[in-house]
Amino acid sequence: MPKEKAIRELEDLPGIGPTTAAKLKAAGIDSLDKVAITAPHELAEISGISVDAAKKAVQAAQESTTLTYETGGQFYDKRKQIGKISTGSKDLDELIGGGIETNGITESYGRFASGKTQLGFQIAVNAQLPREKGGLDGNVLFLDTEGTFRPERIESIAKAAGINPEKALENIMLVRTLTTEQQILSLERADKLIQEKNIKLIIIDSLTSLFRAEFVGRGSLGERQQKLNQHIHRLQTLSDKYSLAAYITNQVMDNPGIMFGDPTVPIGGNIIAHAATTRLYMRKSKEEKRIVRLVDSPNMPEGECIIKITPDGIA
Ligand code: GTP
Ligand code: MG
Questions:
Q1: Which residues, by Cβ under 5 Å, contact ligand 2, an ion?
Q2: How many Å apart are CA 280 and CA 291, to the nearest integer?
Q3: Does the pTM exceed 0.70?
Q4: How far does residue 186's CA lie from ligand 2's centre (Å)?
Q5: DSSP 102
Q6: How far is residue 154's CA from residue 139's CA, in Å, rounded to a whole number?
Q7: Does the pLDDT at position 263 exceed 50?
Q8: Residue nearest to atom 2 of ligand 1 (CA)
Q9: How far is the CA of 223 from the centre of ligand 1 (A)?
Q10: Is the pLDDT at 312 greater than 80, yes or no?
Q11: Ligand 1 mean position to 283 CA, how many Å?
Q12: Which of 35, 74, 282, 312 would disulfide-bridge 160, Cβ 3.0–4.6 Å?
């Protein structure tokens, strides 16, 4: 057998030529790491090669990728560097371990008017505060997919937080996205903006609404999930690479399979469940009160707290 050449890109994998590589890239499998974690039958389906050939390609990709190991202690040191954005509510901050964390994705889901967007506005302001005041001393990239961004709200919240309202608005880079294509691109092209503008928080409000609107019907579910997967992975990568916080909002639907208890489940299924580090379920209570439930967190117990949506923001 001839000596194998080093595998650096998709085209270097056995059985993967430029055409097959292009198909994989179009489907979002654009790196050796991604090939390494793709099931052979899925790879075969996407690219049209045989399952056997796909098995060989996946195996070669797994062998080619380099993993770096670190000790638990090194990892813990890194954890201590993690920044936190105060939500404006002491109780909510405590519930989630100090605030919305960097290097991870925080998701809020709930019905309309449950406060998901308002919480986004609050942290878009608070992220700009100095670290000792519950901020990250940074700016914000805000993807508005529903047209519900309200500069007036940012103004009131900023005033209450002691930030110049015009400055606060100046520090929020707003993208109004009308299609999933635009939404995906906004993150794909964000590297330069993040570095130049010192972005420390990315908000996607909402992550799922355009995907739901564009991919209707059973037949398109696979494509929707695959695009959503690609998008949220990109968010994870940015969050890790630039040590920034990510906040996404999500709608809910009724799961008819649940007979007892609350039938409300977030959209997007496992893809989002796995990607979000912290999940918050928000519910309307009396008047300005909202109940926030911590559903999933790697290091905090589940629990609930009550917040208020006031003219000055979250309290
Ligand atoms: P959807 O996007 O529709 O799914 O809902 P959401 O969860 O994003 O709701 P949002 O965060 O926009 O919350 C809306 C609620 O916030 C309203 O019902 C109001 O009760 C409250 N709210 C919005 N603006 C103000 C305000 O200026 N003052 C006060 N006190 N409450 C406000
Ligand atoms: Mg909203």
A1: 117, 148
A2: 10
A3: yes
A4: 19
A5: B
A6: 13
A7: yes
A8: 112
A9: 32
A10: yes
A11: 12
A12: 312
For residues 155 and 165, the answer to whether their CB atoms sit within 8 Å is yes
Closest C-alpha residue for ligand 1 atom 21 = 309
Q: What is the pLDDT of residue 1?
A: 45
Least confident of 38-52, 223-237, 250-264: 250-264
C-alpha closest to that of 34 among 184, 165, 226: 226
Torsion angle (degrees, nearest 10) of CA 71, 73, 78, 80: 160
Q: Is the CB–ligand 1 distance for residue 115 below 6 Å?
A: yes
Q: Which atom of ligand 1 is nearest to the CA of 111?
A: 4
Q: Which of 35-39, 144-148, 159-163 shows the lowest mean pLDDT across its residues?
A: 35-39
pLDDT at residue 66, as a whole number: 74
Per-residue pLDDT band at 4 (split at 50, 70, 90):
low
Give the C-alpha separation, 226 to 208, whole Å.
13
Distances (CA, A) of 54 to 7, 24, 44, 253, 310: 16, 12, 6, 37, 56
Q: Is the CB of 289 under 6 A from ligand 1?
A: no
Q: What is the mean pLDDT of residues 170-186?
A: 97
Mean pLDDT, rounded, for 243-270: 83
27-71 residue pLDDT tens: 888 889 889 888 899 899 889 999 999 999 999 998 887 777 889
* Total Cβ atoms within 10 A of residue 182: 14
Residues in the chain: 315
Beta strands in 131-277 (DSSP E): 139-144, 172-176, 199-205, 245-250, 252-254, 264-266
From 87, 92, 108, 114, the mutation candidate for ligand 1 (largest count of ligand atoms within 8 A of CB) is 114
Nearest-CA neighbor of 108 among 90, 129, 126, 122? 122
Closest atom of ligand 1 to CA, residue 114 = 7
User: What band does 157 get if pLDDT is binned at 50, 70 and 90?
Assistant: very high
Q: Omega before 243 cis (within 30°)?
A: no
- Here the tokens at position 150 are 């309200």
